[in-house]
Specification:
about 375 residues; Beta-lactamase; 13 helices; five-stranded antiparallel β-sheet; four-stranded antiparallel β-sheet
């Protein structure tokens, strides 16, 4: 009998350990689709159910865009903040119950700050309650062919019934870009000001990935670190969705890697007809951008136009001669990629002893990260250095 109890005890521990370890790491999935034809270029468990976290706000914004086109929202429409909205947990703008926020600012707060209090306030303004808004979100998902997606709230806060897939989120991102091209520059918004305070986007892919068209990041513990972004480069456009990254840094690096591997296989992007002038003027009011700027096709970031104030460190040595030897070795490996960079052995003191850091300067941020990826087999310790 004692032996039986011991076995039961061991099996119980194994079950508990297995449950806790699986719960501690969110399941990973990803997909890359060609934005021109929707064809999958790469995928990993893209049709498995996941918690979308703040990628949910992409659907919230889709419905906001519908309201704008229907004339039911104007840039200065006051969005009332209820007690329920004010009580939403972080990430939040910290709005007090009873106040209002202009619809234009609310839309930017939804994207840049990923503000859950604003998401609830918008839902209540449009549908009367967040529950009704969520039902509209789920209905719209069906209309767009997102058959593995259901919504319970407007923000992406955890609920066991709020689920989607990487594939569905990629389809949603494609629908947003296709159905509302006049708002494309919104996805590249890096900040906004509210009540005298400036808020900056934590979507670092916008700065680190050449040609990124922003869109949305997200995180909850049950989901991991997520991102949905379009990338346009060399007249090709793709959409990347990652759900379940182990960290924001790992997620961003994976997105950059997927972009570099997938873009060469994408079809030449053919933009749809430009929005009519009325839609462009309407979008310009919301985005504080001249309509003529909105009419320009998205070309993506040009590396030559980015600030060249980053460095990479390729080693630290006790003698300057070894640091210079490493610089020469790396320059032979990378060749033309380091054509405009400047190598140096920067002296420092560590534990009372001189050290020399082998670094290349005069690099843009995306270039620094790309070079370090290229050097993984040569020197795994390559480190991008911010200004």
């Amino acid at each position: 009998m004692r032996h039986v109890f011991f076995n039961v005890f061991v099996l119980s521990l194994c079950f508990i350990w297995g449950f806790s370890s699986s719960a501690s790491a969110a399941p990973f999935s990803s997909i890359v689709i060609d934005a021109t034809n929707g064809r999958s270029l790469q995928q990993y468990r893209a049709s498995q159910s996941r918690y979308p976290a703040s990628l949910t706000k992409l659907m919230s914004l889709y419905i906001v865009f519908e309201e704008i086109e229907a004339g039911r929202l104007s840039p200065e429409t006051p969005i009332y903040v209820s007690n329920k909205a004010a009580r939403q947990p972080a990430s939040r703008l910290g709005l007090k119950a009873g106040r209002t926020i202009a619809a234009k600012t609310a839309m930017k707060a939804l994207l840049v700050k990923s503000a859950n209090d604003v998401a609830t306030a918008i839902a209540e303004h449009i549908s009367g309650s967040e529950d009704k808004f969520a039902r509209r979100m789920s209905q719209k998902a069906r209309e767009l062919g997102l058959y593995d997606t259901s919504f319970v709230n407007a923000s992406g806060l955890y609920h066991w019934r709020q689920q989607s897939t990487a594939r569905d989120m990629a389809k949603l991102a494609q629908a947003l870009l296709t159905d509302f091209p006049q708002f494309e520059s919104l996805w590249q918004t890096t900040g906004f000001t509210f009540d005298g305070k400036k808020y900056r986007s934590h979507n670092r892919v916008l700065r680190r990935l050449s040609g990124a068209i922003g869109m949305k990041t997200g995180y909850i513990r049950a989901s991991g670190y997520n991102i949905a972004t379009a990338v346009q480069r060399d007249n090709k456009r793709i959409i990347i969705v990652i759900i379940g990254g182990s960290s924001a840094t790992a997620r961003d690096r994976h997105a950059i890697s997927l972009a570099d591997r997938s873009l060469p296989r994408a079809q030449t992007y053919v933009a749809k007809a430009k929005p009519n002038s009325a839609k462009l003027r309407q979008a310009a009011q919301w985005l504080d951008t001249p309509a003529t700027e909105l009419a320009k096709p998205t070309q993506g970031l040009v590396l030559a136009d980015l600030p060249r104030d980053w460095k990479i460190q390729v080693g630290a040595f006790s003698a300057s001669v070894h640091a210079y030897s490493q610089l020469q070795r790396i320059r032979r490996v990378l060749g033309p990629q380091l054509e405009n960079s400047q190598g140096s052995a920067e002296p420092i003191e560590r534990n009372g002893k001189p050290m020399y850091r082998a670094r290349f300067a005069n690099l843009s941020e995306p270039q620094a990260f790309r070079l370090c990826r290229s050097l993984l087999e040569v020197t795994p310790s390559c480190l991008p250095i911010a200004p």
